[in-house]
Amino acid sequence: MKKLLTILLVTILLSCQDNKEQTNLTEGVYISNVTIISTEDGTYSPYIGHLVIEKDKIIYVGKDEPSISGTFEQIDGTRKFIIPGLIDSHVHMTDVQGMRQDHIEKYPDLVKEFNNQIPRSYLYYGFTTIINLGGISDERINSFNIQPLKPDLYHIGYSGATIANGYPMIYTPEEFRFEIEPNFIYVESQAEHIPDKYNPADHTPKAVVNRIKNSGAIAVKSYYESGFGRMSNLPLPTKSIMTELLNESHANGLVLTVHANSLEGHSFMVDVGVDILAHGLWKWEKYKDVPADSLPLEIKETLDLQIQKQIGYTPTLTVIEGEEALVDNKFLNQSALKKVVPKNLLEWYNTEEGQWFAKELFSESNVEEVHTRYGNAQAHAMLVLKYLSDNNGLILFGTDTPSGPIYSNQPGHNGNWELRLMKEAGVPLNKILASATFNNAKAFHLDSSLGSLATGKKANIILMNKNPLMDIDAYDAIEKVVIGGKVIKREALEAK
Fold first, then answer.
1. Angstrom distance (rounded) from CA 204 to CA 213
2. Which contiguous run of DSSP H or E holds residue 241?
3. Interval 272-312: pLDDT, tens
C-alpha cells in the first residue's frame, strides 16, 4: 500500500510539471542559467536563475526554469551575470564636449558624428537611462530619440530654476540670457537688469515649477553657486524661495535637485531639506587647507544632518578629475576613448584649436600647481563620500557629463571613470551598484519601471562576464546590453 501511494504521488507531481502553464512569446528573450544580481532594498542575494522578456518588459525572473514557447532569442547565461541597466542621473545633452559655439558652427561634420555616437557611447558602458540636468529643447530631445540605439532620456525642462542673473544664467550674453533660461526666478534685487517684457508673476517659484512640469520634466533643477573667478558674488536663492520650490515640486510630483559643491551650499540646502544635491562637497572654504585625512566638525555635522534626512548625494568626482586631466598629455591616447569617441573628433582635440579651454583655464598655472590644487579638492571630495558611505548616506550615481567645455568628460567613458573613482574613495561595490540602479530609480520616482530586475519592469539589462559585486572591472566586461528588450552586442556600439 505504501509503495502504491508513493507511485501515485510521483505520478501526480510529474503530471503537474507536464501541465505547467506555458508562456507563448511573440518578441521574446530568454536568458537562462545566469547569476541574477538585483535589489529592491539595497541588499544583494545573487542567485543562478532565469529571466524572460516579452517585447520591452520583464515577464519572469526567478530560480525555476520557465515553460515558454513561441518566438524568442535564447541567451545562455552560464558563468555570466545580469544586473539592471545603469542610470546616470546627471548629464548634459546640449553640449559637444570640448567645443565652443563657433567650433560647432565651423565643424558641422564633427558635430554630426559626435551626436550620432552619444547614445551608443552611453549604452557601450551599460548606461541605459540618463537624466539631463541642464536645459534642453524639444528639438534636442527629438533628435536624440530618433536614434535607432539609445538610452532612455529624462530631463528637467527647457532650463533650470535659476535666480535671475545668477548661476548659470550669468555665463550667457545678456541679450540671449532670458530666452535661453526661461525658467528663471524673479527677484527684486535684479529687477532693473530684467527686460520689461517679463512679468514677475510668470517667474515665481510656483509658476516656474508648473512650466517645468508641463514640459515633461521629472525634476526641477536649482542652483546655489556664488560664482568663481571673474564671475563672483552672484545672486543666491533665499530660504523662502528654496522652500517654495521644494513644496511646489512635491505638489507636482517632481523631485528638487540642486547644484551645490561648497560647504555653504550644502549646509544651506540640507537645512531646507531638498531632495538631492547634484554635486559632491569639495569646496571646504575656510577648511580648504585642512589635511585630507580628517573631516572638520562643521562638515561632519552637515553630513550627519544630510544622512538623517536621507538627502541624495551625487559625488560627481569626475568634475575635478576631468578638469585636471586637461594637463595630462596622455589622456587622449587611451584606447578606451577610441571605442566611444569618433576618430576625427579625437584628432581635433589634439590640435592647437582643440586645446583652447585647457590653455584658457590654466594659462597662469604650471602642471605641478594644477595637480596640487585639484588633488587637494579631490581628496576632500573622496573623504566626504567615504564618510557618507560608511554612515548609510543616500548615494546617487551621477557624473555631470560634461562639467564644462572639456573633452575629458566623454559620454559613457566618464561614467565608467566615476564608478572607479567611487571604488578608489572607499565605497563598497554593492553600494556603488545600488547608487547607479535602485537608488537613482527610487530617488527620481522611476522605480516602478527601472532600477531592478523584476516582473513588469522595463527590460533594461546588462549581461556581464564578471561579477560587479566582486570586481569593479565588471563594468568594462560587458558582453551584451538589453535596452527595452532589444539585445545589442557591445562591439556593435563602438564608434565607427
1. 14
2. helix 239-251
3. 999 999 999 999 999 999 988 889 999 999 999 999 999 99
The SS3 of residue 390 is helix
- Describe the crossing of helices 367-390 and 413-425 by its angle, rounded to 10 degrees: 70
Residue 4 and residue 11: Cα distance in Å, rounded? Answer: 11
Nearest-10 Cα torsion for 234, 235, 239, 245:
-100
Cell of 455: 516582473
Q: Which residues of the chain have pLDDT under 70?
A: 1-20
The string of DSSP letters for 244-294 reads HHHHHHHHTT-EEEEE--BHHHHHHHHHHT-SEESS---B-GGGTTS-TT-
pTM equals 0.95
Answer whether 409's CB lies under 8 Å from 401's CB: yes
> What are the strands of the beta sheet with 152-155, ordered from one edge?
86-91, 127-132, 152-155
147: which residues sit within 8 A by CB, 6+ positions away? Answer: 116, 119, 120
Could you give the C-alpha distances from 75 to 53, 78, 356, in angstroms and in order? 11, 9, 47
CB–CB of 393/7 below 8 Å? no
Q: Using CA atoms, how far apart are residues 458 and 454, in angstroms rounded to an integer?
A: 9
Per-residue confidence (pLDDT) for residue 13, from 0 to 100? 42
> Is residue 21 helix, strand or coil?
coil
